[in-house]
Amino acid sequence: MSNTKYILGSFADPDEMMHGIDKLQANNISIFDCFTPMPIHGIEAKLGVKPSRLPIAAFIFGALGTTLGFALLFYTMAYDWPMNIGGKPSLPLPNFVPVTFEVTILLCALGMVATFFYRNHLFPGRAPRVMDLRATDDRFIIAIDARENTDHALIDTLLKEAGAVEVKYNERKYVSYE
Amino acid sequence: MGTHNHHHNYNFSEQFQFAGIAKVLSLVAIVVGIAAIAMGLLSSDHIMVERTYANLLLMGYYFTCVCAAGAFFVALQMVTQSGWSAGLLRIPQAMASVLPIASILLLVIVGLGLTTHNLYHHWHADGLTDPNSPNYDALVAGKAAFLNVPGFLIRQILFMGSYSIFAFILAKLSYNEDLAGGLTSYKKSFKLSAIFLVIFGFTTPIWSFDTIMSLEAHWFSTMFGWYNFAAMWVSGLSAIAIILILVKKAGYMAWVNENHLHDLGKLMFGFSIFWAYVWFAQFMLIWYSNIPEETVYFYKRWEPEYKPWFWLSIIINFVAPLLLLVDRDAKRKNGMMLFVAILLLLGHWLDYYIMIMPGTVESHRGFGYIEICTAIGFVGLFTFLVMSKLSKHPLAAKHHPFLDESLHHQI
C-alpha cells in the first residue's frame, strides 16, 4: 500500500480540466476538489459544490447589529438618562434609524469578513493551505483522494487522456507547510 | 476564456408577434381609459374634472418616467460596458422608443392642466405675484423668477425633448447595428449615453420639482428630485422584468435565463431600499427640525384621509421587496419576480398618488372608477406601444459586442 494521500492532475487549460472532471465522474471516481487561478463558470454545478452559507452568517450578524445598535441608543438615550433634545420624545424612533442602520451594516460587514477568514483559515501570520502552488499561477488542478479511489492506474490514464500535463502523487495534503 | 462556448443555436433574429389576446386586451384597456377620462373631463362637477386632471398627471408622469427609465437603463448599460444585459436590451430600448409619445402626452396634460387651472393653481392664479392684489402670495412671488408659466413650459419641453431625442437615437443606433454590424453604433451609443446620463442626472430633479413638487408651491425639498428618481428607476426596472418574464413565457428570448433575472431582481431589491433611504432622509430631516413651512407636506399626508395610504406605500415599496426578494432563489423565480414587479408598480402608483393628490384635490381624495380606469387606460397604452415597438425588430441585438458575454452570464 502506497503512502499516497492525494493525486493531483495538473492542467494547462481550463477546458481540458473540465473535460477531465467529466471523464473521472463517468468512471465513478469522486473528486476531492479543484483549484484554479480564476473563477470558472459552471464548475460548482459540475462538482456539486453546495451554495455558500455566508449569506446566512451575514443575516445573523446584521440582526445582531440591529439589536446592539438599538440597545445602545435605547439604554443611553431613553433608559439610563432620558434625553430631551429639541423637545422630542425621549424615545424618538426616527432618530434611531440611521445609527441602528449603520451599526447593522458595520456588524454585517465585519462579521462576514471574520466568518470568511475563519472558514478559509486565513489568519494573519498563518501559512495558507495550498495543495498545489501553481494553482495560484497558471495551472488548473483536479485533486483526488487516493485512499477513497484505489485504482490509481486508471486515474492516471484518465487524467492524461484528458490532457493533464502532470500527475502528482502527494503524501501530504498541503504543500505550503514546507 | 470560454469554457463552454459550444452548442447554442439561438435564433437572434426572432421577432415578437404582437397579436391575439394581448393586443385585444391592450386596445380594450385604452378604450376603457379614454371613456373614463372623457366622462371625468365632461363632468359638470368641477371637483371631478380636477380629479380627472390629477389622475391624468399621475399616469402621464408615471408613463413618461417608466419610458425614461428604459432610456436610462440602456444608457447605463452602455456607459458601464455591461455584458450581462446585452441579451435583453431590446426591451428597455422599446420602452425608450416610446418616450417621445409619452412626453408629448404628458406635455399636453401639463399644459391643459396649467391653462385650465386644474393643476398648479397653487402658483398659477390671478394676482398671486402682484403686491397690490388681494390674492398676493409673498412666497409664490419670491419663487416667480423660476416658477412662472413660460419658464415652466420651456423647461418641460427642453427636458422631455432632450430625453426623448437621446432615447430615440440610442434605440435607433442599436437597430442600425443589426443591419450594419461593426462597432460604429456601439461607440456612438457609448458617447451619447455618457452625455445623456449627465443631462438626465442634473435635470430630472428639476423636472420633478416642476412637474410634481410645484403642485404644492409653498413647500420645497431638495431630496424630492432623488426621491422621484428612485421611484422612476424602481418602476422602470419592474416594467422591464414584467415584460421579460411574459415575453419569455410566450416562448421567446430563450437566451435570457434565471441569471439575468437575478440581476434585474438585485437592482429592484437594491433600489427599493434606495427609495426608502431617500424617502426616509427627506422625512426624518423634516420631522426632526419641525419647521412649519417644511412639515406642511407631511401634515397634509397625516390627515385621516391620507394616513393609511401613506404608511401602506412604505410597506409595499420597501418592506415587501425587502422581505420577498432578499433570498437568492426568490430573485431567480419567474413567479416571485413577476409578483414583486407587479406589486412594486402598484406601490409606486400609490407613491405618486400620495405625492399628487394632496396638492390637487386635497380633501376630496377618492378612489373610484376614474383612478382605476385611467390607470388601466395608460397601462393599455404602454403595453400597446411598447409591444408594437418590440415586435418591429429582432429580440436580440445580434451584433452587440457583449452579446456572447451575456449568453454565458452566470451568478
UniProtKB/TrEMBL annotation, chain A:
Keyword set, alphabetical order: Membrane, Transmembrane, Transmembrane helix
Keyword hit for DNA-binding: no
Segments passing through the bilayer: 56-76, 96-118
Pfam families found in the cross-reference section: ActD (PF11821)
Transmembrane helix in keyword set: yes
Highest taxon above the source species: Bacteria
Protein name: DUF3341 domain-containing protein
Organism: Sphingobacterium humi
Automatic annotation (TrEMBL), chain B:
Official protein name in the record: Quinol:cytochrome C oxidoreductase
Residue ranges crossing the lipid bilayer per the database entry: 21-41, 61-79, 91-114, 152-171, 192-209, 229-247, 267-288, 308-326, 338-355, 367-387
Organism: Sphingobacterium humi
Domain of life: Bacteria
Keywords (A to Z) from UniProt: Membrane, Transmembrane, Transmembrane helix
